[in-house]
Amino acid sequence: MTLWQNLLDALQSIRANSLRSFLAILSIAIGVAALITMLSVGVGAQTQIAEQIRSLGANVLIILPGAEGGARGPDGARTRNAPLTVDDAKAAATIPDVAAAAPALQLHGRLVYGNRNWPTRINGTTADYFFVRDWPLAAGRGFSAREEARAGKVALIGATAALRLFGEADPVGQEIRVQGVPMRVIGLLSPKGQSGSGRDQDDILFVPYKTARLRLGAEDRGIIPDEVTYILVKATSDAAVGRAKEDIEGLLRQRNGVLSGAPAGFRVTEPAAAMAARQGSTRTLGWLLAAVASISLVVGGISIMNIMLVSVTERTREIGLRQALGANRRDIGWLFLSEALVICLIGAAFGVAMGAGSALLLAGLTGWPILVAPSTVLAALLFAVMTGLIFGYYPARRASAMLPAAALRSD
Prior knowledge:
alpha+beta; 6-stranded mixed β-barrel; 12 strands
């Protein structure tokens, strides 16, 4: 018998026992849908974390104050105003394994353009900040050395802040008021998306560091001269990150007169490493959820085996007639195995549609990052095929082992 003939016979048998076949198909569909939904949740979470790691920039270290308190770092985490200064950033930049270091003074203020206004974060920094973060411009230019040295009234605007303030209009070249101070937008930053803490990284305005200090009233807010909220450091390579971290800690301890082993008053963190660890735990959780979901597919496989065993019993005389007409044991085995595979494939097709729909619905209701990847669909289909082969094997083997004479005598 050819494969095509086996498939036609399988479809005819399914049609002849439509209710029984429907229940088997439904059990497989539910199992495949559950598997796709759970895998999509895990893959979506891992993809989001990978995007957040990339958005930080390569080989980035963050120097933060050591105690919890009022100011915020670049990822939105709260920190206390600590004695980190511009000179600390300059000193960190001299370390051999450091490619660049950028101080950042973070404030909050209101932007005004025409009859529109928008509250946002204001970050006073240097041009090196965008090199450290691998943050390109979508339009315009960056700060010049003259603008940084003379507290120029210029600004780079994030994509979200630009959308809120200018709509679809081009912000480059427009004049806005920042805390009442007129400034010219000279550049629009490319979108970065959310940070690891869920903060919108594009809802921000960047100005030169001296502009934030001298023109936006940093001293009036209790910030001491040359103090910064945090410092971003870019190591020269992946391999140099660990060495750079150790050298920075040693250098800042030396500058602040802190002995080894004593509380440093600052923290040098590697956000990408922490997020990579989080990604690993998310991957493990995703596979655990998939393993739990696959149990329903195994239950569906058991249902198929039971139905196929009933089918073998009901078709005993047919098996005997096929053998009498020249069908060998392999033909009989493939006949029933094909029926199990067809049931699983039909169920898998419905399950893919149900799973993709469930994943999209779950994403809409919860706001979770969910991604229905082709590899996820392929994995679910392969699992369904394996289910058909494994649970259809015993009934097919039982049918092929029947003796023609005994089969023909069956009622």
